[in-house]
Amino acid sequence: MNNKLYGKLIFELSHPGRRAYSLPKDEFGSHELPSAMRRAEDAALPECDEMTVVRHYTNLSENNFGVDNGFYPLGSCTMKYNPPINEEMAALSAFNNIHPLQPLSTVQGALQVEYDLQRALSALTGMADFTLNPCAGAHGELTGLMIIRSYHETRGDSRRNKVIIPDSAHGTNPASAAVCGCEVLEVKSTADGLVDFDDLKQIIADHPDDIAAMMMTNPNTLGLFERDIPAITKLVHDAGGLMYYDGANLNPMLGVARPADMGFDVMHLNLHKTFSTPHGGGGPGSGPVGVREGLEPFLPKPHVVKNGDKFDIEQPERTDSYTVENNHVGPFLGNFLVIVRALSYILSLGKENIKMVGPLSVLNANYIKESLKDDYELPIHGLCKHEFVFNGLKDKSTGVTTMDVAKRLLDYGYHAPTIYFPLLFHEAMMIEPTENESKETLDGFIEVMHNIAKEARENPEIVKGAPHTTPISRVDDVEAAKHPVLTFRQLAAE
Amino acid sequence: MYKYFPHTPEDIAGMLAKVGAESLEDLYAELPREVLYKGDYDLPSAMSEVEVRRFFGRLGRKNRQLVCFAGAGIYDHYAPSAIPQLIERSEFLTSYTPYQAEISQGTLHYIFEYQSMMAELTGMDISNASMYDGATATAEAMLLAFNNSRKADTVLYSSSLDPKTVDVMRTYAHFHGVRLEEFNSMTTSAEDLKVRVDKGDIAGVIVQQPDYYGIIEDFTGYADACHSKKALFVVNSIAADLALLKTPGEWGADLAVGDVQSLGVPMSFGGPTAGYMCSTEKLMRKLPGRIVGKTHDGNGQRVFVLTLQAREQHIRRQKATSNICSNESLMALYVTIYMSLMGKEGLKEAATISYDGAHYLCDKFIATGKARLVYDKPFFNEFLVDIDGRDEFYDRAVEKGFVPGVKVGRSGLLIAVTEQRTKDEADELAALL
């Protein structure tokens, strides 16, 4: 990463008349587009030569920090290594130059990629079948909730529209429930950070006939395994609800426990978290959804199946209106090239090595936690899974906040942890190392965290003013929201 | 140890001692026994890189790369070679959502450029940072229109929308409680639309340009008809075609949505691509998804940052404008670099060749006497023909190395031409009729 801001916009490099493209000659003869259908003015896009464009984006990239640059102790969003072999496989022309509506006999390889990943995810989670169509985790949540509502509706139980969600849940859980037309019932956490079983019992008692589902992450967002899970699933199932597993935290369970065995009925997972596909600065991700036996008919279409040695697509005839058999969350078969990458990862690790993912990620998290709990407030003691939460510095007298510590970490060449989430603690700092990080990397991080705690005591201003060595210093968020400037046209008019 | 795991046995022993555990299994001591998985995953054994290459190479050979005249939402447009090279830069590829603005200016800059370019292309005031794809972006526009209105519960959509988009809208609508009603924008005048909207139950009207059949539709008066009762007018467009076409902004749209795949993104079996959503300034705080804005840092430097986050799920939870918590950032970078390279002129030139190619091929088809245009209306780079013996023709063409189009109904074929097709290819396809 370059610690000097490059800062230019491509529009500012534009000079009328320059070209960065070459197209074949138009050999089809001129055909007139009716003038009433033409735009009045050309789109004001940049005009640059090719090298200017290449240098511009290369320079921009150097103001960015990725997993390949350094350690990302980012809780709630597993930032593991993105192996180059996955990229090489996703770049194969045989996967890039195929149209989604080609005859199925000409895309058997692509269909097998989808099918093989569906099967692999079933093996790893215990679910009966998967759809790979959702493009992200939140998209998967919505899909999963649709499946749950379809299940209830098909049984003539359509008033079930309440979804129980722990107060420690990811914000997407309640938001997905709302988009799916459900009402959220929030269940409290205990002082130990687990679902409050008594509160849950009360909620269910208060809503005996309209619980559609309960959504949970397990381990939860505090990195704690919900050990009451057998009792929780029994309670919800007895009330007629289904259990939804938010797979954001599946990583520590690889090799150890499967969501289906915990009693979950529907789940999503994130290929960009657990299965090593790159985050790409915020996508494209992929959020496959798995279901237990009996719920397969509610999976969205199209869906890949295998008939004999041929791969086929399940896609019922179109109808005049929505039917439960004809539910769609996207136009095709999901983010195919992301799916290629995830399959490449699973095949590379194989059944032997994938078992080590969970234990090593948990070892790494506990090692950091135990090494730093003298300087940072650990609100919940005991074993964590892949992540844990500190409630800021132990010594609150310095006035140094979690935000300050996070920003100071940037100066030392680390990404910041997830901060101020979960909402249960005021100064939450959520740390997740993955199985890919070495002991030396963790020791380096631990040393820096101790240093920052020391700085907070001895020279708090240096922490409060951080970062100092990054391309830019702290930004004015309020200004951005108060006077929104969202395009170059708006910027140029200022 | 495995190549992605750096832990030596000594590391593990030392770290376990620090943690106070005897073994790796001990780290899971609190798990109820009944949830522990003791089986052997039903997966193959680890493959070396050589074997992984062989595996995917074999699957790749089970795909046929054909000369593509299929469209219906995914087009075989040209992508400059600089794009994949830049996209693969790991600072872009392996980075997280740019919450930490100090070390994410690369991502934030290009998203701002993306928003600027999409606003220019659609003729709208602003753009969000991109969405999953054109179909879900349209469904989100439907939800926005529905939630924007206090009373109206119905969204009108044209029967000339891509049916795959309609499928997704119907699914979202079913669960969210939106009433959907179909109308035909090819035959509905602005006056007729106004009569329907005047009943007061319409929250939004969604049309497509060019429509599913490639037709360039006329929406004159539609926006006024919508706005008379505060319904939102939503135009779904194939992004690349807007280089030439009258823009959603010029049609008076409140929301412009669609897929960006036509801006140089590989077909890749339909994904990943990205959807766009652009709007008037008035709807800014109701948009779903990420938005990047300009601000300054402590040293007064012009910088960019994720903004207007009060709309989003991590702040508002169930009251958020959407559950979306990411964009398709890398795909937004893809089309940003595409538009930077193609620029103002290149985008027009590619669209012109595509337009001319489709009209050339259409003439050729008609001249055979075996194909007829289904709609006698202006079209862009895609057209629907009825073909005698369509299925035999289709199979013949596939055998000769073409995807001749996308089948529609019993005898229709929807055919698209891009700047990547040659006159020879067009002639050869027509000769197969």
TrEMBL record, chain A:
UniProt key word Oxidoreductase: yes
Cofactor(s) for this UniProt protein: pyridoxal 5'-phosphate
Keyword Secreted: no
Residues of the Glycine dehydrogenase C-terminal domain: 361-458
EC number: 1.4.4.2
A GO cellular-component term linked to this record: cytosol
Any GO molecular function: pyridoxal phosphate binding
Pfam families, per the entry: Aminotran_5, GcvP2_C
GO biological process: glycine decarboxylation via glycine cleavage system
Chain positions with N6-(pyridoxal phosphate)lysine modification: K273
The organism's place on the tree of life at top rank: Bacteria
Aminotransferase class V domain ranges (all copies): 159-280
Gene3D superfamilies: 6.20.440.10, Aspartate Aminotransferase, domain 1 (3.90.1150.10), Type I PLP-dependent aspartate aminotransferase-like (Major domain) (3.40.640.10)
Catalytic activity: N(6)-[(R)-lipoyl]-L-lysyl-[glycine-cleavage complex H protein] + glycine + H(+) = N(6)-[(R)-S(8)-aminomethyldihydrolipoyl]-L-lysyl-[glycine-cleavage complex H protein] + CO2
EC category name: oxidoreductase
UniProt entry keywords in alphabetical sequence: Oxidoreductase, Pyridoxal phosphate
Function: The glycine cleavage system catalyzes the degradation of glycine. The P protein binds the alpha-amino group of glycine through its pyridoxal phosphate cofactor; CO(2) is released and the remaining methylamine moiety is then transferred to the lipoamide cofactor of the H protein.
Record's subunit section: The glycine cleavage system is composed of four proteins: P, T, L and H. In this organism, the P 'protein' is a heterodimer of two subunits.
Family of the protein in this entry: Belongs to the GcvP family. C-terminal subunit subfamily.
Protein name: Probable glycine dehydrogenase (decarboxylating) subunit 2
UniProt lineage: Bacteria, Pseudomonadati, Bacteroidota, Bacteroidia, Bacteroidales
UniProtKB/TrEMBL annotation, chain B:
Claim: Oxidoreductase is one of the keywords in the record: yes
Keywords per UniProt: Oxidoreductase
UniProt-recorded Gene Ontology molecular function terms: glycine dehydrogenase (decarboxylating) activity
Record domain Glycine cleavage system P-protein N-terminal: where: 3-432
Record's protein name: Glycine cleavage system P-protein N-terminal domain-containing protein
GO BP terms, alphabetized: nucleoside metabolic process
Pfam families: GDC-P (PF02347)
InterPro entries: GcvPA, GDC-P_N, PyrdxlP-dep_Trfase, PyrdxlP-dep_Trfase_major, PyrdxlP-dep_Trfase_small
Organism: Prevotella lacticifex
Domain of life assignment: Bacteria
